[in-house]
Amino acid sequence: MIEQTYATLELDDIQRGVLSPRPTPYAATYILFRIDDRAHGRELMRRASEVVTAATDSMSPLGETWVSIALTYQGLRALGVPQESLDTFAWEFRQGMAARANTLGDSGQSGPDNWEPPLGTPDVHVVLVALAPDGAQLEAAVDRARPAFRHLHGVVQIWRQDCYALPTETEPFGYRDGISHPAVEGSGIAGSNPLEAPLKAGEFVLGYRDELGGVQTPQPEVLGRNGTYVAFRKLHQRVAAFRRYLKDSSAGPEDEELLAAKLIGRWRSGAPLALSPLRDDPVLGADPHRNNRFLYEQDDPAGFTTPPGCHIRRANPRDAAVAGAPRLHRMIRRGTVYGPPLPEGVLEDDGSDRGLMFTFIGAHLGRQFEFVQSQWMNDGVFFGAGDARDPIVGAGDGTGEFTIPRRPVPRRLPPLPRFVVTRGGEYCFMPGLSALRWLGDLED
């Protein structure tokens, strides 16, 4: 029997970007660096330890603004971390996201050969992320962080992606985003679903007990403890194709909105089908205290209200026994929009690049991010649907099926094309503040 212990997190040593939900509205930026000079890279780590925001700063004058630093496996190597230490990191992290493309469903147009450079290449060493409630505060945060890399000629900025909340506060397909967030034991941050018990800290932060009672920590402990793994993904969204599919597959405007809700599991306002099955309820959708308060097993085990194959039920089956042990696959997810919105009603692509920068945070890359991608997003065996893929983010090829449970006859939709294309991504390690200082003090 696993001993039940309550974690006391060392919040002053954990980067705030690990645990805090993003603000709404928001502005964000992702800046990638290459380390050409080891000494300058180490100096960047020393400076970064004074710039990144700790989890204890949630009540600071910065408010909902923070800066985070993460490193790829190649970045740790560039800093001169000993190989015996590197070998203690998760093997998925050591391989890198591009090498894991087949497992993740990144094939064809989503394959690494088509990724936006330098994503997925050995040149990506450091990822700086800044998040704020608006553009002015975001640039102020970047300005505060700039001394960390200014005048370090051996650290080269190689890519930047800016993100801003759309005026509608939705993602590009038109759905309210950023609703679901798990409670992490010891964090002091409430989850968005009060019916879900807080998860063990070790599911998200290295060095603490996880749901299985184990403790995962890369070595030495000063490097691994209070860190986490992060999967960054740039996902291009084919908004016009999605709109055309809804229009062509529905009997009219009302049916189109119902179909949109059945594919995701929520109405576009954010109201979940589980709580508002027959019609949209924008007031419910906008209420953060109610719009995620539901389970499936007792009220809707067969999915007549929220289809088993819809996006939110795949991404988080909650209490569904058919999914095995959903708590072992929970992640912290954050999405930030990039690119201009496609004007309302437009059904033809305008050539603009738009979509989401997605961040997945967890202490177990294999059984969290990769399991969800391979088993829940790109397969349907866990709920009896064969190889059916997620209708929104799955690796669709124009042959995939989606069935809406309905009495007396289920509703089968036309084959699903690919609506989301991976433009690149990286597996990263987000160290604790002590680890950043340790990296800065490394010697050859």
UniProtKB/TrEMBL annotation:
The keyword Secreted does not apply. Its cofactor is heme b. Residues 27-147 form the DyP dimeric alpha+beta barrel domain. GO terms for molecular function: peroxidase activity. Keywords: Iron, Metal-binding, Oxidoreductase, Peroxidase. It holds the Pfam family DyP_N. It comes from the Bacteria. Belongs to the DyP-type peroxidase family. This is Dyp-type peroxidase. It comes from Nonomuraea mangrovi. The lineage of its organism: Bacteria, Bacillati, Actinomycetota, Actinomycetes, Streptosporangiales.
